[in-house]
Design brief:
The complex is a heterodimer. By secondary structure, chain A is mainly β. Chain A has one domain: Nucleic acid-binding proteins (OB fold (Dihydrolipoamide Acetyltransferase, E2P)), CATH 2.40.50. In chain A, 4% of the residues lie in helices and 28% in strands. Chain A is globular, with a radius of gyration of 14 Å. The N and C termini of chain A lie far apart (40 Å). By secondary structure, chain B is an alpha+beta fold. Chain B is built from three helices and twelve strands; from the N terminus they run H-E-H-E-E-E-E-E-E-E-E-E-E-E-H. In chain B, the strands form two sheets. In chain B, strands 1-9-8-7-6-5-4-3-2 form a nine-stranded mixed beta sheet, with no helix packed on it. Chain B has a three-stranded antiparallel beta sheet with strand order 10-11-12, with no helix packed on it. The relative contact order of chain B is 0.16. Classes of the chains: A mainly beta, B alpha+beta. At the A-B interface, strand 3 and helix 1 of A face strand 9 and strand 11 of B.
Chain lengths: 140, 281
């Protein structure tokens, strides 16, 4: 399980996706800025879930990504709040330790192994959506 | 037998008296229905939801405070947000709590209207008991609010809650864009809270800000959408927040609790006191 970042273009392991469709659509400005995450150069990542933290103020996915040299690097990925996820049909059991995921990440600008993820750009590695039938409870 | 009838009559009369008292205490029909869960829908998280984020918010700032705003926007672009105390779980306060990052609840009683905000578990009171402004007010993040109900169309039912808020404790901000308030801490707000005339499931809060950082008062309308049976969720910011500031730098905590830089070339924190402890050994 490897992640690839090729300049300004992303080449998926399983399919080729045009750059424009990989522009990271970060959550709207929330209680804090997302400027520390590079939203213009999203990274496709495939790895194994070490932990899914369903906590306030932000949920976290800790994902182990195998590097090309065989070592494993853990990434800390910040998502929206558990309440926001719940309104999209998620729960603390939506992702479990050991799940293999494919996720697009806006990485920290510093290059440290951290970033932000969104529900619109995450799925199980075999292509299944995390939430089969998303239930949105939102206003118009 | 007559004694029992007398006792029974007394009990019935007492019960009726109590129920009438309850009815006079709070006639709900006089007030608009603000019940339910209100969220901002697809409304923006910038203070003015009709405008994009960043400088495009175009607040009517004085030249001096426009420079501060531009510096904050530049800091954000570089990956930092030391100016944004809410990223470290400090309360939003007024006016920012009315953005409704998470849903809000408006609870009307005759003497006080309460606004409960899920995000950061914030709470404000708007007193409608006819009180005067206190001679001295201890500032709080939510401020001190006095309001009055207005029957605009003369149908015997209140339509609008007008409120004024003073004594807001700093640091506070409009939103995460970094629009600054004047350092004198004298900002105040006037609001008109009312249901949309055409859709009673839309709530509007017309907020006018008075602040010396502004060239003139600034009015923004926040809009909320009702959900009558939606669940409520807890939001406790300090549960596992990974954003922190040390000195003038913003950092990110990894999942295992280690400091991560947020921008290229960012220096580590000043560890002078750790070095002194090392030397003492």
């Amino acid at each position: 399980m490897v992640y690839r970042r090729v300049g300004c273009a992303i080449v998926a392991l399983l399919l080729a996706v045009p750059f424009t469709s990989l522009t990271f659509s970060a959550p709207v400005l929330a209680h804090h800025s997302f400027a520390m995450f590079d939203q213009k150069n999203g990274v496709e990542m495939v790895g194994v879930v070490r932990e899914f933290r369903y906590v306030s103020p932000h949920t976290f996915i800790i994902i182990d990504v195998k590097q090309e040299d065989g070592t494993v690097e853990s990434w800390s990925l910040e998502g929206v709040s558990p309440s926001a996820l719940a309104r999209e049909g998620w729960s603390k059991d939506s992702i479990k330790t050991g799940d293999e995921l494919k996720v697009w990440v806006a990485p920290l600008r510093s290059g440290a192994p951290g970033g932000a993820w969104v529900t619109q750009k995450i799925q199980f590695r075999d292509g299944r959506p995390i939430i089969p039938t998303p239930e949105l409870v939102k206003g118009p | 037998m007559s004694e029992r009838r007398a006792i029974g009559a007394i009990v019935i009369a007492a019960a009726l008296a109590l129920s009438l008292d309850g009815a006079r205490a709070f006639d709900e029909s006089k007030y608009p229905d603000f019940s339910g869960q209100w969220d901002r829908g697809n409304g923006g998280a910038g203070w003015d939801p009709t405008k994009p984020n960043g400088l495009a918010q175009n607040p009517p700032l004085t030249a001096e405070y426009q420079k501060i705003f531009e510096a904050n926007v530049a800091a954000v672009a570089a990956g930092g947000e030391v100016y944004n105390d809410q990223s470290r779980c400090l309360p939003s306060g007024m006016p920012r709590m009315m953005i409704a990052y998470e849903p809000i609840e408006v609870i009307v009683t005759p003497k006080t209207t309460y606004v409960r905000v899920d995000h950061l578990s914030e709470f404000r009171r708007i007193y409608t008991d006819g009180r005067d402004w206190p001679a001295a007010i201890e500032p709080t993040f939510a401020g001190y609010s006095i309001g009055k109900w207005i029957d605009e169309n003369g149908d015997g039912r209140y339509d609008v809650l007008e409120a004024e808020t003073r004594a807001v404790k700093g640091p506070h901000s409009y939103d995460a864009n970094g629009i600054p308030f004047h350092q004198d801490g004298e900002a105040s707000f006037k609001e008109r809270i009312h249901l949309d005339k055409d859709n009673p499931d839309i709530l509007r809060d017309d907020v006018t800000t008075y602040d010396h950082a502004l060239a003139h008062p600034w009015t923004v309308t926040r809009t909320y959408y009702r959900h009558r049976d939606a669940p409520w969720y807890e939001h406790v910011c300090v549960e596992d927040n990974h954003h922190l500031a040390i000195g003038k730098e913003s950092y990110f905590l990894s999942a295992d609790g280690l400091l991560m830089p947020t921008r290229k070339g960012q220096p580590p924190p000043d560890l002078r006191y750790f070095k002194e402890q090392q030397t003492a050994k």
